[in-house]
Amino acid sequence: MEFLPHILIIALTVVGLWKGAEWVVVSAAHISRRLGLSEMVIGLTIVAIGTSAPEFAVSVTAAIKGQADLAVANVVGSNIFNLGFILGGVAIFSSCVTNRRTVYRDGSMLIGAGILLLLFISDDVLNLWEGVVLAGVLLSYIIFLFIQKEPLEEDIPEGDFQWWDVPKIIAGIATIVVSGHFLVEAASSIARLAGVSEWLIGVTIVAIGTSMPEFATSFIALIKGHHGISIGNLVGSDLFNILGVLGIAAIIRPLHVTDDAWFNVILLALFMLVVVVTMRTGWKVSRLEGVILLLLTTLRWIINIS
Q1: Is 207 domain-assigned?
Q2: Which domain holds residue 125?
Q3: At residue 157, does pLDDT exceed 60?
């Protein structure tokens, strides 16, 4: 019975994370239409940052509290869940179409971010200057995308911009931050009560909960035929998680982690390489490749639990 209150809190905070991220994403999409951005750029930046807000809230809060393993585990677990279960699941529903720009520009950036994190965390600590480098790389990438100014290829769903989209974004961010705080508290409590490490809790319950906004956004975008938003959201979210979330978390407080983090970052880097390869084969992520991604993600969880 002592677990029940914490489980209920996690359930409520996941709902808060989902709803808050939804407000942020929808309002951001409205605002972006006025900027004339392509759906891929919108997916990689505005939508991705919005859906990554839960990971940001959870990992930064964990970093402030000195829970470095939870901060890194959340990012690693969420990224693998995004590219494995979400992209794989979405591809099984309907093959995800890619293109040369997505694979070579954004895919290469994804692999590069994974390698950079692998190098930085090899000594079991992500320090201040490494956090600055990660955040700087992300900022440069976003500026580059906006300077390119790709033409808007199709309308973004969810209607047109309204004045209330601005306060709606603020309300969404506030909901996400508060929910993220209580999610970390509840997850940490469960870890202590069950005698399970915070790392394992981070790569399972917390990672899945904070990845729900990405799942909803990418699935709905695919149903409506917006492949750029669907894939761009997942790739962009993973980039923001690695470069932005961990970068800012390390700037706030150096992240000292255990050897589990190093091993799992290796798995993440290899997993991202596999995903980019599937995006290149036939310029789409096929249903078969979706099944493979799901199986690889399941195998990774088994390795973590065993």
Answers
A1: yes
A2: 4-149+163-305
A3: no
CATH number at residue 131: 1.20.1420.30
Whole-angstrom distance, CA of residue 128 vs CA of residue 28: 30
Percent of the chain with pLDDT over 70: 90
Q: pLDDT tens-digit profile of 232-264? A: 889 999 999 999 999 999 999 999 888 778 888
> Please, are residues 237 and 80 in contact by the beta-carbon 8 Å criterion?
no
Q: How far apart are CA 250 and CA 245, in angstroms?
A: 9
Return the higher-pLDDT residue of 166 and 289: 289
138 pLDDT higher than 90: yes
